[in-house]
Amino acid sequence: MEFSLQAELVLSKAPKGIKLDDFVKSLGDILKKGAPDGKGAEIKDWKVSGDRIKLTITSGTYVRPHDAVFRIKNHLSRELGREHKLGVREVKGKRYEIKFGLEHKPKGEIKVPFAKSIGIKGKDCTIILENLDEEFLQKNYVDRIVNLVREKVEQQHYEGKQEHWELIWQSKELKHAWKEDPSRAMEDRDWIKHRGRGQWIFGPQAASIMRAMEQIVVDELLKPLKFDEMIVPKAVTWDVWQRSGHAKSLYPEIYYICPPETRDPEFWEDVIDLYKITGEVQTKLIKEKIKEPIGGVCYAQCPPFWPYLQGKTVSDDSLPVKVFDRSGTSMRYESGGIHGIERVDEFHRIELIWVGYPDEVKKIHIEIVERYKKIFNDIMEFEWRMAWVTPWFMAQEGMVGVAEEKEVGTIDFEAYLPYKGSRKDSEWLEFQNASNNGDKYPKGFSVKGQKGELRSGCTGIGLERWLAVFIAQKGIEPDNWPKQFKKRLGKLPEGIGFL
Ligand code: ATP
Ligand code: ZN
Ligand code: MG
Questions:
Q1: Nearest to 455 by CA among 444, 468, 464
Q2: Catalytic (active site) residue 302
């Protein structure tokens, strides 16, 4: 990497009678400190112009100019401050040129904020930045811009590619009741009713099936493995997603939450009056009267759980922590092709979270998978499979190992939907997942154990997805449903009749 920064130090007054050459000499090894021998930053040229010192600072990877310039500032303040009553008011970056090599040749244009230009020749990249303020230089924006360019180039290479998918377990092939679309079948019978974008009302029959499924999870998984229930917020504020990492990417899928500008009824009078006269909700006007979003509706339940542990050292007596939440819906702004209850914008999920030392966390993940096997094979009698999925970029970095060694990553649980086509060619439905999240959450929320670092895992049980799989494979006739499930379900409610 090569860096070249044209910087200006704005002084409190013109530095009369000061020999700049002597000052630069007096810097000695300050710009080499922390770098290997012979490396570090260098001042290429310097001059005084009015109340400013103009410098060009260059470096390789070590002691980058945006760091070096503050070493110079501090030294200058120390050396000249006392003697000449001179202070440095401000540091400015007039022009910053950064050259570095890329892993791959970009496939298209790369744009990032702040960059005046990004020039690319083969795998060589040159970024030009102009008119940078002190905050920009001090807060290391430069390194983040370089990383963002690298990330975007890599993204161009894996765009469209599926995550790395590796089958790790598969159930027996079963004979299924029918090949109907479960959502249509339930809609026809008024078990469920569509309500606008990706939202459904579950009638008494569908609700009782989902509650029976939930009870199975309680009896067969949560109680035996001693998970305790918690209730976590469903309005998630930015600070939570900043710590969980979701703030890096979640924006296209968020349902945003905006409080009113004020709760003063007078402020809302026109909205109220216009509605009373026209019968139309004044959405444009409302948009002008609400604050910026404070966050969004729960996307996954683990992020809003973590502030409970934030900044704490968890007592060894309480480890491993095993908790779950089922206290409300999650919402995601899903892409166009939302279909039936398989992909909805508002969904019901039980999420389990466990936290402990690395071995414990791995062991719990394995125990949970064993419990799931029992539930899906013996009670639900699903035809299903498990796959280890790794995001494409991780797969590229060689982070795909054999099943037993897997430290961080996700198992997707997928079920065959007969109405979608053959087992081989159709897309199976992910109805839940189980993840080893490594140190991501304990790090992000600054959580420690008495004996050292903690790890965590989570598993999300999507009740709409379970219901879809169940009706798709078992049909709508309770007489044909698996015995063990029927025993737990009891009698299906009659539902509400319509004329
Ligand atoms: P998909 O690939 O189907 O979009 P995902 O990878 O986004 O799923 P996760 O973020 O892993 O899903 O969420 C965990 C679980 O939450 C899923 O296995 C599923 O049970 C449930 N879930 C996620 N999104 C939806 C949705 N839009 N509708 C219903 N359930 C969902
Ligand atoms: Zn989670
Ligand atoms: Mg998704």
A1: 444
A2: yes
